[in-house]
Amino acid sequence: MNDESPVAVTGVTKKFRSATAVRSVSWSPQRGEVTALVGLNGAGKSTLMRVMTGLIKPTQGSVTVPAGQGRRPLSAMIEAPALFTGLTVRHNLRIHRILTGAYPDDVESVAALTRIEQVMSRRVRALSQGYRQRVAIAVALLGSPAVLLLDEPTNALDPEATADLRLMIRRIADRGTAVIVSTHMLRELEGVADTLAVLHDGQVLYDGPFTSFVGPPSLRVRAQDAEATARLTALLRDEGIPARQVTDGVRVPADGRDADRTARRIFTTAAASGIGLVELGHITPTLEEAFHAAISGARS
Ligand SMILES: Nc1ncnc2c1ncn2[C@@H]1O[C@H](COP(=O)(O)OP(=O)(O)OP(=O)(O)O)[C@@H](O)[C@H]1O
């Protein structure tokens, strides 16, 4: 764990009687960053979050949460928000303020951060799903937690409420909290999350910058037939071009300004050897392609 990580997960495995939900996960989300914890249904996201909160004990490994230096060390919203639906929003916040030992001023500051000031006097049961979710997050923010875990917070939200939530998550992280948000929808936190952690079958397959996950663009080359494709791949490699044969042709990494020059070299090499090209174009992998590639790599 470094100075920037307010929580460290070390070698955590969680076994249930019939399933291993989390396998040897080591992970340390960073202060001031939004981390998207992405995985298919059953990948182990909720279990990992529950272990991080201390709700369940790991079978192996440990979770270290240093003292919060005046802040609450860790707070979470997992499953349905625990709100008193017959009470007003302000009353809910005041009760949780006392339960968490937060400062009285915190009630107004979390209300401002989650933009719920205009519903403070309304009963929770009269609120829309989007506002209930905001109130639940406001409750979780009492005491300025160093780490905030949100488990599938956009479930049941409409697109507008989801967009609001994305902005809110960013604002919270910008105040120095490590915000970890689980979702099974890869694109949901694109543009908001700094870091992506891909969980599959209980294991972390990728943990790094969100923007690096898809990898660089490449050139897609298709020759007239399989024999020509294999020959072209070998010729390009002889020329020092890192060509890779794939099922539908040849891929050549091609980033930025070099891409056009590399494309011309491929064209010239093919023409000089009498290889007919059926296709030569740029491709940028999508998030989904990168995700499926990561998962199928783990399966093989
Ligand atoms: N209390 C439990 N007892 C037995 N098995 C469990 C328990 N909790 C989770 N599991 C199993 O552990 C695996 C991971 O479940 P988990 O709920 O952590 O995944 P998830 O990524 O949060 O999925 P989802 O997106 O569907 O909520 C699944 O196979 C699940 O059936």
Automatic annotation (TrEMBL):
Q: Cross-referenced InterPro entries, in alphabetical order? A: AAA+_ATPase (IPR003593), ABC_transporter-like_ATP-bd (IPR003439), P-loop_NTPase (IPR027417)
User: Which SUPFAM superfamilies would you find in this protein's record?
Assistant: P-loop containing nucleoside triphosphate hydrolases (SSF52540)
Q: Where is the ABC transporter domain?
A: 7-226
- Keyword terms: ATP-binding, Nucleotide-binding, Transport
Quick check: keyword ATP-binding in the entry? yes
Asked if the record carries the keyword ATP-binding, the reply is: yes
**Which branch of life, at top level?**
Bacteria
One of the record's GO molecular function terms:
ATP binding
What family name appears in the similarity comment? Belongs to the ABC transporter superfamily.
Q: What is this protein called?
A: ABC transporter domain-containing protein
Which species? Actinoallomurus iriomotensis
Ranked from the top, the taxonomy reads: Bacteria, Bacillati, Actinomycetota, Actinomycetes, Streptosporangiales
